[in-house]
Fold:
Amino acid sequence: MNFRRHFHLLLWSIIGLRAHADLPAPALLLPDDTLAALSLPSATAARTNFKSSNLGRLWNDASMLPFRTQFETGFRTQFATPFEKESGLDLTLLLGLARGQITLALLKDGWKSGDDNSPGPAWVLAFDTGDQSSKLSEILATTRQRIATNSTLNSKPLKIGEASFTSMTLSLQSAAVAGLNSAKKGAPHVADLDSNPIQLSFGQLGTAFFAGSSPEALRRIALRATSPNLASGLQSRPYFKSIEADAFKEAAAWVYLDVAAFYEQMAPGLSSVFGMLTLLGADPAKVVPATGLASIKAMGAGIHHSPQGLVSTLRIIAPANERTGVTKLFETRSLEALPPPTIPAIATSFLRWRIDGKAGWKALDDALKQISPQVSSIAQLTLESAGQAFDSNFNLQRDLANNLGDDFISFTLPLRGTNLSQPTNPVQIQLIGSENPGRLIAGWKAMEALIHMQSGALQFSERIGPKNQKILVAKISAKEGETTLFNLATNGTYLVVSETPEALDLYLTGSSNTLANSANLTAARALSGSATNGVFGFYNSREEMRGTWEALRTARGIDTLMPVGTLSLDALRAIESWADFKRLPAFDQIARFWTAGSMSGGSDPGGFFFRWMSLGIK
Structure:
């Protein structure tokens, strides 16, 4: 502890903690060892914005009342009531008092990864109650009385300056399980899993409520609340300042993650995670740096409300001179990324990335070589052998790596069926730009053969498309029978890949009604930014959501919608106890709340940037 901090603590103990009309901005309130933060500048504005948003209007619609009532009851039973029983705090009542800033942060607070004697990172919550501070004082006084008369609560008073706080140990998991079991009377009880006790400290400072998992963390935050001009705050972090300027200005809510700080903590233990790679001559310590993930320093996102709809901005700090592997692969070229005229207007989603395929392939190869030259050689040899199974003249570099262009497109046609085990691409089409897409087919065959070598025998046949195009059909034969994986064709300078023949034929037939000229896309891209930075996307939420919504509403149970083995019985019971999807209204009753949106983005010397825009309800 340095002299300046000693001095401030001494001064603090003499004059006590003074009340503030509101909390300092998070950049001043939070210390420089903040690992992550979530902040709403105004709770009052957040409530207003939510009510007027598409999601808020959907949630409060009369047709949602049966589902909403059951959901809120389940939340109270499983989470709010157990928390109140264990802590004495009425969570709903407390949050209802918030008027100004709400900030939740995760602090390093002495955490040392891999050290069993080191405490983990500490979380801190602070929110300003404004003119409701007297009610906050009453609630906390009542809480302290309740705690004092309950001998089962492991609590003790805590002094922070002249303010009275409370510190206690909670066992929320046991209480939540008890709540779940009581909500499902007659059903087998959920097993009470072992869990470490949770530390909770809370109290009032001026008009603000503070809570956290560490008394020391609360002391530090309280010191900054009373002396916000202290040095070494979050505002001193250069990555935070950069993201703040790009994404947080006038945001209704924002989130920040110091990736570099997390990596610094976790790096010493990563070697053991990848230890098996030593059998291939790899250096486990080089795995994460080689992927490029270590070049990501920080990221942050902000949400802005506008009369036209909701705008979200994401900024990722990854300096160009440090990028490698994946981060090098996704560097974009400053090229047009709007939908080409071949994309039909009925497309429910569209995404186009203008990245250099050849350079991206080299970046991945360089990453493998950095990890281990042997791993790189084995990967190339395996992939080349897979391609030669279909074409003895196949050459990996010539037919695949050198034939990748700078245009990668995917789009989906309206969902069919109601099986959530195939949520993202039941009718997805991919377009891969190439100067010689015919030769690229051989490379695609090689990759697919490698992916499916354990599933069964991959076979190709030919069929004729709607305009007499030659189409390759990939099927896999296994014990369960024959399954069609995808259809391959070429169209101009693109290799076209589709999982269903109907979708491919529709695309190849063409349409005068194109996505590029649709009213939805024109309206949605108005606030999403320029489409010339290398990335552009579009989505029609109404058509994308229809099948999923009806699947949830009409299924016998959520277990029938998910792949076998993905959810345990306990997890299923937990979900269904607070989310009874059978109570959802028919989609047509709430379709108006789902609109269209678009996104744009790209890369620059500092990192990556993206902007999403979702249209409001007219």
